[in-house]
Every structure is written in C-alpha cells, then in structure tokens.
C-alpha cells in the first residue's frame, strides 16, 4: 500500500500527467475550433462546402488516431512541416476530434425547433442574429453532455501520443514499470490518475449543465432552502420560502382569466357600423396587394393565381378546408416562402426583391420585413424556448428595433398586462398553458408595431377550453388597434364577430369573397355553402 501511495506522488508520473493534460487541452481546443468550422460548412447553403466537410469527416473518422499521429510526426516533415512530438500529437488529436465535434454541433443546431427560426424570421431577425440569439443558446445547452463525453474520450485517447515518443502518463508508467517490474502497482496508480482527471471533466460538465439549466432556482431561493434544511426550528415563513416551486403541470392548469373587460369584444358590441366602416376602409391605402400568385411544391399546386387586396385597417378572414392554401398564402405574404409566379406588395414594397426586381439576400429580406412591419402569429406558438415570456416579447425589440433593455422591458410588460399575463412574465414557455403561450406570441407580434398582422390558425393547437381566451385577445386587437389583419381560422362565430371581409379558398384558388355577413349567411358558391354547413354541424 505504501508503495502504491508513493507511485501516486511520484514526480516522474506527475510530469506525465502534465503532458497528458497539455495534449488533451490543445487537441480539444483545436478540435472545437475546427468542428465549428466544419459544422458551419455542412449547414451552409453551398453544396460544395458541405461536400468538402463530409469528405473530411469520412477520412478522419475512418482512420485510426494512432496512424494520424504517425502521419503528423513522420510524414509532414517530408513537405517541410516539422513539428515537435507534442505539437504533432496535439494536431492529430485535433484533426481527429473535429469531425465528431462537428456532428455534435450540427445535430443540436438541427434539433432546435424550426418553428422558432420561422418566428425569428417573421420578426425581422437577420440570419446571424437568429443563429446567435435563438439557435445557438438552445443548441449549446443540448450539446454539453455530448461534448463532456467527447472530452473524456480525448483525455483517454491522448495516451496514444506515446507512439510518437511523447512522455505522457501512459508511456511514463510503462517505462517505470519496466525498470521496477512492479507492473500492477504502477498501472493501478496510473489508472487512478486517469480516473481523477476524467472525474474532474465530469464535475465540470455537471457544473456547466447546472449553470445552463433554465429551471434552476434563483440563488436567493437556493440559499433559503439551504438554511431551512439546516435549521432545527423551521418556521412557517421560512418553510414557505423553501417550499418547492409549482410543477409545470400545476402552473399550466392554473386558472388565468383575462383582465376585466366587457363579456365579449366584437364590432357590434363596440357600436361599429359595418356599412360605414366598409365605406371608410375603401378609401384607405392598400396594406397588402397580391397579384397572380402561383406556388407549387413539385407537382402539387398550392396557390393557383391568387389576386387579393387588403386595405389598411381591414380585418380579413381566410376560410377553407385543410390544404386549400391558407397557411401558404400567409407565409408568402411574409416572404417565409418563395413562389414561382406573381407578386406581393406590402405597404407598397415587394418583399424579397429590390427596385430592379433582383432577389435580395436573406439579411436584406430580414431588414425589409422589419421596416415594412408584418407581424405573424403561428399555429404552434413558436415561442423561443430558452426565454421567459417577458424576454420573448422584449428581446426581439432590442435585437431588431434597437431599443434599450429598459424600453423593451417596459413595452413587454405593458403588452403582457394587456393580454392578462403580467403575473407570468418570468415564466418559461414550457411552464405556460397553450392559451397562455399563444397570448405571449400575440403580444410578441404586436410589440413590433406592425402595419399588417398575420394569424395562421391561432387556435388550432389549443384545447377547446383555451380557445376563447385567445380569440378574446384577437377581438380586442381587431376592434381597438385598427391593424390590417389576415386571419386563417375555422372559428365561424369568431369570423362573424371581427371580419370585415371573408375569403373562401379551395384548391389554391379564391372561390368566393365578400362581406362577412353575406358570405356566412348567404353564400353564392356551392363549395362555400357545403363547407359552412359542415363546419356548423361539427
């Protein structure tokens, strides 16, 4: 036992640990930098870069690390690149780790919900902002366990550096054992040293995961729990501080009524004369103008010659069976989708092309979205999962509009108050019910002061008991804010309450359009009548 403990403190072996750590740190650092580059190449729009990255991965994942170390140490000098043993081993380890790290990064970037990317685009964020503010923070949280595992693997693989005569821990253990013939004690001590090093890596991983854990209690709450656990006299007040926070399910099912208001906000309840309103709207400028729009996915034609004009302040409801092109039309208006023929102008400007009709870059399209002002609310909410309700509303104002944190937070709090969620401002999306999430999404879209608000089936992903709370928020926007709104929905009663005009689509074409009362009560086209009859019977 004494001999074993002596080996643990043997300077000869301790020096080997230093070399082992040096190679591991250099190899991992280089591999991380190269991995980010390789992942970026694979995720880029350029096929040649993706092919080059894939080829690199096939070569370096398909050959043993020991051969790569020999190549860096013995073959590179033949072309004038002479490296020391430590430099060659570190370079080989970096080259070997890069494709594995690249795949970890790429997998976690792809794993971020694409709906959040669409929401960020709709808010006018540029590709760099989307990657840095929306995708990367969530991807990094997901990739920490895999990167921790890769760090442990690199630490153990550093032992292969002995093949190029690096005096790392394994080689020094072998040399010492050959001199003393005490193989068991020496290699057992060496193995324990490796275990301690990998244990430190595991501890670092745990700490990083804790720091990145969005559900981690605040420091004040942790301190209160700690002292409460130590105290033999637990008062009611301290126990209350230390009590576990409600679970997401408890929070999501809590009753959450809207602020006091009239029982139902409709144009009729607000005393709006629809005939006078229609006459007034007819004199407004065009908010959205669609001409000859054709959109297809391969042989499947989704939009077939759509012609549509929306006046400023007009509320238009899109009706039609599933697959009729309602969602695609909304996404085209916001330039989240391209099209083959036709044109769309929002506020007199064509999204996606310059004055000469040439296509714009993704960055320029994002800037144009922000300047034109087209807000969008999605079926699946698409809130940013790593941000609280307040941050979901406020942070895009900072990133896109350039507001200060104080001004952005103040506007966010005012809008959350308006939609009845001021008390949930610090809640993460997964701790909110579906209706609450959709109300946050509406507040986020309105925060940008859009001239046009697009709502794509805003209640389709909600349980029936949550539908009314979201519809009530939209009713208020329609009546009080005077936004031009295009709403895709199957809620006929809601359409009757808020719509100035209803457009019925089928098979990618506009079958019938007209005032809401006329379309809902006296449809002229048999397809419209059949659809309305079916919806009323459900």
Tell me about this structure:
The protein is of the alpha/beta class. The protein has 3 domains: 2-212, MetI-like (MetI-like fold); 219-245, no CATH class; 274-537, 3-Layer(aba) Sandwich (Rossmann fold), CATH 3.40.50. It contains 22 helices and 10 strands. It has helices at 2-8, 11-43, 47-62, 65-75, 85-111, 114-122, 127-157, 169-180, 183-212, 219-230, 236-242, 248-252, 274-282, 326-333, 362-372, 389-401, 405-418, 434-447, 464-481, 492-498, 516-521, 526-537; strands spanning 286-297, 300-311, 315-319, 341-346, 349-350, 374-377, 452-456, 484-488, 501-506, 509-515. The chain has a 6-stranded mixed β-sheet with strand order 6-7-8-3-9-10, sandwiched between helices. It has a 4-stranded antiparallel β-sheet with strand order 2-1-4-5, covered by helices on one side. Helix 2 packs antiparallel against helix 3 (47-62) and helix 7 (127-157) packs antiparallel against helix 9. The chain is elongated, with a radius of gyration of 31 Å. It starts with a helix and ends with a helix. 39% of the residues are buried.
From the structure above, extract its key features.
alpha/beta, MetI-like fold, 4-stranded antiparallel beta sheet, elongated, 6-stranded mixed beta sheet, 3 domains, Rossmann fold, 538 residues, 22 helices, single chain
Show the helix and strand layout.
Elements: H1 2-8, H2 11-43, H3 47-62, H4 65-75, H5 85-111, H6 114-122, H7 127-157, H8 169-180, H9 183-212, H10 219-230, H11 236-242, H12 248-252, H13 274-282, E1 286-297, E2 300-311, E3 315-319, H14 326-333, E4 341-346, E5 349-350, H15 362-372, E6 374-377, H16 389-401, H17 405-418, H18 434-447, E7 452-456, H19 464-481, E8 484-488, H20 492-498, E9 501-506, E10 509-515, H21 516-521, H22 526-537
Parallel strand pairs: 3-8, 3-9, 6-7, 7-8
Antiparallel strand pairs: 1-2, 1-4, 4-5, 9-10
